[in-house]
Amino acid sequence: MMKPNVYDQPYTEWKKWMKEQGEPAFRADQLMDWLYCKRVTAFEQMSNLSRDLREQLADSFTLDALETITAQQSVDGTVKFLFQLHDGHAIETVVMRHQYGNSVCVTTQVGCRIGCTFCASTLGGLKRNLTAGEVVAQVVAAQRYLDEAGERISSVVVMGIGEPFENYEATIGFIRIINDSRGLGIGQRHITVSTSGIVPSIYRFADEGLQVVLAISLHAPNQELRKKLMPVSRRYPLEKLLEACAVYEEKTGRRLTYEYALIGGKNDQSEHAHELGQLLADSGSLVNLIPVNYVPERNYTRTPRNQIFRFQRILESYRVKVTIRREHGSDIDAACGQLRAKHLQIEQRSS
Ligand code: SF4
Fold first, then answer.
1. Cα(192)–Cα(322) distance, rounded to whole angstroms?
2. Which end of the chain is more exposed for a tag (fewer CB within 10 A), N or C?
3. Active site annotated at which positions (predicted)?
4. Residue 325: what pLDDT?
């Protein structure tokens, strides 16, 4: 049977495990320090743990660093990693440089079954869920990369390949582990989880007592269009989604962010902006406009800059707060899933 990954275990589980080995509880703190502060890659390096304990750890757990298949570096400092998991699957993790700090975008599933038409991640379907530890390992790997420049990760976005609410338990486990101050200590308000709109999970998430940012991938101002762009809307219609969003905001006292990918000629016209403005007028919510990256398989085009600004102005006329996402890595395979899709094509051709 496959040994569990060390990054799957939260601090409370380490304390229990240490007790079972007859070790004092503070060994769990020492272990957390080795894993998340010193970021070692082998149990032998944990020099303040006894040889017996290190062997016991190695017999019970794996401490495999993610293997880098390739890393693409953009002129703007963005780095996109293609990592290999223990079973050979490839996933993407992106480190982005902002004026306010460094953020890392993590993957929660190998592929995705949601089927958003503008997304390269969904093209090969869903292969499997990641464990919480496999998501944590991406943040640790990103931090190891930044260690070389003496920099730190200041925020985490769960917006890479996969729908985090289709892998709910692992996503919650991941948030709690990276938030732990004995671990990476990423503040909850610096963690953003993005969902395509899995309505039952939004209700569930509202009861988790978390302070993270929840982002909803909206991408259309009406059900007809949303159904075409995001098949998930057939299961969870826009009206039901917005009801869940209202309950979430009420229960948590936290405003949602709506993500809106602008796709040339599809959802980026003035009439769409007016419809979206009416839908969210005076809600206090934030709309994040995302100029969509070109996805060759779908033949989607980009919205011209002046049209993006017009869209923004119309939304603001309805007192909706708007940001335009700064492009990262436009000179590399920037769209979510693009690098992995390319890797899969090469593998298929050579097999
Ligand atoms: S946008 Fe997200 S939810 Fe939609 S197909 Fe891509 S990875 Fe899945």
1. 17
2. N
3. 92 (proton acceptor), 336 (s-methylcysteine intermediate)
4. 85
What distance in Å separates the CA atoms of residue 201 and residue 244, rounded to the nearest whole number?
A: 9
Amino acid identity of residue 266, one-letter, is: K
Q: How far is Cα 110 from Cα 89, in angstroms, rounded to an integer?
A: 7
Name the residue with the closest Cα to ligand 1, atom 4: 116
Q: What percent of the chain has pLDDT over 70?
A: 92
Residue 275 is labelled as binding a ligand: no
CATH class of the domain comprising 6-60: mainly alpha
User: What pLDDT is recorded for position 89?
Assistant: 94
- Ligand 1: atom nearest CA of 217 is 1
- In terms of phi and psi (left: phi > 0; alpha: psi -120 to 50; beta: otherwise), the region of 125 is left
Q: Read off the tokens for 276.
A: 């979206």
- To test the pocket of ligand 1, the residue of 130, 157, 163 to mutate (highest count of ligand atoms within 8 Å of its CB) is 163
Among protein residues, the one with the nearest Cα to ligand 1's atom 3 is 163
- Say how many residues make up the chain: 351
* Interstrand relation of 191-195 and 109-111 (parallel, antiparallel or unpaired): unpaired
List Cβ neighbours of 304 (8 Å cut-off, separation of 6 or more): 264
Q: Is 112 annotated as a binding residue?
A: yes
Q: Domain coordinates of the chain in residue numbers? A: 6-60, 67-350
Please tell me the predicted confidence (pLDDT) of residue 332: 61
| Closest C-alpha to 46, from 63, 22, 67, 68 | 63
Q: Which CATH class is domain 67-350?
A: alpha beta
C-alpha 344/C-alpha 338 separation (Å) is 10
SS3 194: strand
Ligand 1 atom with the shortest distance to the CA of 159 = 2
- Do 6-60 and 67-350 agree at the fold level? no
CB of 295 within 6 A of ligand 1: the answer is no
pLDDT at 333: 62
E strand or H helix at 20, and its extent?
helix 11-20
pLDDT (0 to 100) of residue 328? 65
Residue 78 one-letter amino acid: T
Question: What's the pLDDT tens digit per position in 148-171?
Answer: 999 999 999 999 999 999 999 999
